[in-house]
Amino acid sequence: MASEYTTTEYIQHHLTNATVCNTESGIAFNKACADAGFWAIHVDTMAWSIGLGILFLYFFRRIAKKVSTGVPTKSQAFVELVVDFVNDNVTSTFHGKSALIAPLALTIFVWVLLMNLMDLVPVDVIPTISGWIGQYAFGMDPHDVYNKAVPTTDLNLTFALALGVFALIIFYSIRMKGIGGFAKELSFTPFNHWAFIPVNLILELVTLFARPLSLALRLFGNLYASELIFILIATIGLWQLPLHFMWAVFHILVLPLQAFIFMMLTIVYLSLASEDH
């Protein structure tokens, strides 16, 4: 597929999301949505993330319904291993009491991991298949058909995940301390004097907003850079297969690590929010 484009066009094509938007002329797609701004929807990110989320729910629910106390199947043993791993981390990190944290941590870890693992699919496979479908089923120019299959390379998705965590941080902070206690914590930390309230607010609000920002940018930055390197490897011709293999083997460790970091930071942030100072 790379031979059909210049190197720049090839990279741009593979890093462009399939977009839908509403214009004055009606529903528009891709290039027609260039000026749509905030109201453009990345349908590939939505489809892959929702699809992988449904796959996670279906698989874990199916195993849970068939769980037995006897000798576990390989699938049950795998699910139990993942659940125990997440539960151990929640128990050792989250010091409050909440029935939500463990299921939340499990969902974040498995869902983000599945989205990250899409990075191991050869970069030409999904765009090529999508191009064929667009060309033969809908009469589209395959060069104008996009399908970016790694949802975590889309800043919109990582920010959406981080904003969900941020909403929980605010919720737990207010639930544990009350609105007045939360406001007092922001106003009188770290300097416990009324004269330093403006300074305290600046320091605490920066810290508060840095948490979701760090979550979103860390996950996005690592996965976007990884995907870009896979795409660059695909442009070098004969040597791409061994290099692709080596980079993919390296990412068998990196991709789960990024999901684990996102999960652990979420637990730590919610644990801090649950502490009643």
List the helices and strands in order: HEEEHHHHHHH
Largest sheet: 3 strands, antiparallel
Structure summary, number of beta strands? 3
Describe the global form. Answer: globular
How are the strands of the largest sheet arranged?
Answer: 2-1-3
Radius of gyration: 22 Å
Question: Number of helical segments?
Answer: 8
Give the termini separation: 59 Å
The class by helix and strand makeup works out as mainly alpha
Mean pLDDT: 88
Which residue ranges are poorly predicted, with pLDDT under 50 across at least 5 consecutive positions? none
The fraction of residues assigned to DSSP E strands is under 5%
Percent of residues in helices comes to: 55-70%
Describe the model.
This protein has about 280 residues and is mainly alpha-helical. Helices cover about 70% and strands about 5% of the residues. The protein has eight helices and three strands; from the N terminus they run αβββααααααα. The protein has helices at about 5-15, 45-65, 75-95, 100-115, 125-140, 155-185, 195-235, 240-275, and strands at about 20-25, 25-30, 40. It has a three-stranded antiparallel beta sheet. The longest helix has about 40 residues, at about 195-235. It is globular, with a radius of gyration of 22 Å. The protein starts with 6 loop residues before the first helix and ends with a helix.
Key features of this structure:
277 residues, 68% helix, mainly alpha, 3-stranded antiparallel beta sheet, 3 strands, 4% strand, globular
